[in-house]
Structure formats: structure tokens, C-alpha cells
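Morning, I've got a small favour to ask if you have a moment. I've dropped the whole record in just underneath, so have a look.
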Amino acid sequence: MPELPEIDALAGFLRPRLVGDFVERCLIGELSILKTTDPPLESLAGLEITGLTRVGKMLIVDFEGLHLVCRFARMGWLTWHDEVPKGPVKMGRGPLGLRVRLASGAGFDLTEAGTKKNASVALVTDCGQVPAVAGSGVDALMMGAEEFAAVLAVSRSRIKTVLEDQSVIAGIGNAYSDEILHTAQISPFAPAAGVDADALLDTVRDVLTTARRSLVGLPPARIKAAKKRGLRVHGRAGEDCPVCGTTIAEVSFADRSLQYCPGCQTGGKKLSDRRMDRLLK
């Protein structure tokens, strides 16, 4: 799932290529991707692109009085074309969800791999009309120390859950929460209320800023692979921890998993993995 560093890098790549250009046409490849009908998508034809912004893990393309809010979900991403393919878009075929063709001949596709289609776009006159935007918490790189401490102090959740809650802290997902907690040497199952808020906030800022810097300037096609190369624990179960050498462990859930280092984060103990526990009975 694209998170704050990737969306920032994506916006940085797109901004000089999109702003000032005009929309020629928008084509739908997957009907479920479009979550709004008024104004209709056809309203974008002829409009100038005036800016690109990010809210949490969402990319927002600004036009003259309209905003296209793009949510990539777990498997979604953007493909850039210096020259948009001229062939017809066949609905329901492959990963293509939405194609935007520009007056310059360039354009982009919103795509989503896999059979589950959770990526979405919403065309609105006010971004606040999109519930995910209206309910978004403070940006992970903008949250102040007192605010962060207050959030953790009243929480009854595990720290990983809090870091990923977009209504509390916007921009962090499964991968970077693993990376942040590994760097901070905190168990993902630790109660949020007992965590040193100042130290953890410093780690949040450091991990996200470092990741963002490593991705800036890359084209969309290279951003995901570059992100993966920079991860130290997430997605690396069974490998050696680069800090202490302990084998990186995993906890699996219904549709995702988390990775952590027992040596760095849990005093050498492995966390309970209920799915694996059931398989081993």
C-alpha cells in the first residue's frame, strides 16, 4: 500500500508534468473505481490542472474548481505515459481503473493489481465531501509533540494500531509502522499509552523523512521497488535483522502480516501468531 513517502515522491514527479496542462479526456477501465457521479467525470474535459496535493496516503489532483481524490488502497498505483496509448479502453479488462489523457498527449493511468478492487477516485467540488479526507487525522510529519503525547496517553490500543489509524495520524501504513517500531525498538503489540511519545515521534519523523528523500525524483515505475529495497524488516520475515542479526519474525492476520525483530523489539520473545498457532496444533 502506498504510504506518505511514496505519495510525496509521486506528487513531486507529477507536479511539473501535469500543472498547466489540460485534460482532453478521462476513460474508465473499472466501473467500481469511480465513487461519485455529480459532477460527472466528463466535467474534467477541457479543464486546466492547477495543482497536486497529498492528504495522508491520498493524492489529490486540483483543477479549476474541481478536485480528483485518488485512493490507491493496497494494490493500486499510477502509471505515467509520455504518450498515452491510443487504443480503446476496455472496461473490466486487466488492472486499468482510470485513464486521463492530456492535451499535450501525455497522461496517466490509475491501476490496481489483483482481483479485489478497492482503489477509488472521487470527483468533488470540495475535498471535504470525501469521508476519508474529512476524517483524516494530523499528517504524520506535521503532528506536534504535545498532540502526539496526548493521543498515546488516552489510547487503549496497541502502538502499531495507533500509528496506522488514518483518523488519528495520517500517512503511515503497514510497512512504515513496522519500520518505525523496529527503529524505535518497540514491540508492535506494546500498549500505546506506555510508549515514550517524544522518542517515538522523533523516530516517526526520521524514518518517513529518510524514506521520502530516497524516493524523490524517481518515476512512478521505480518508486515501489525503491521503497522495498529501503525496508529493513517489513516483508523480510526469515532474513537476518540488519541491526542485531536475529531472524526477523512475522505475525499473520486474515489479509496481511506484520514483521518485527525479536532481538531488537521484544526481548528475544516471539509474538503469538494465532493463524500459525492453529496450523501447528
In short: The chain has two domains: 4-134, 139-280. Residues 197-215 form the longest helix (19 residues). The chain has nine helices and twelve strands. The domain at 4-134 is CATH 3.20.190.10 (N-terminal domain of MutM-like DNA repair proteins).
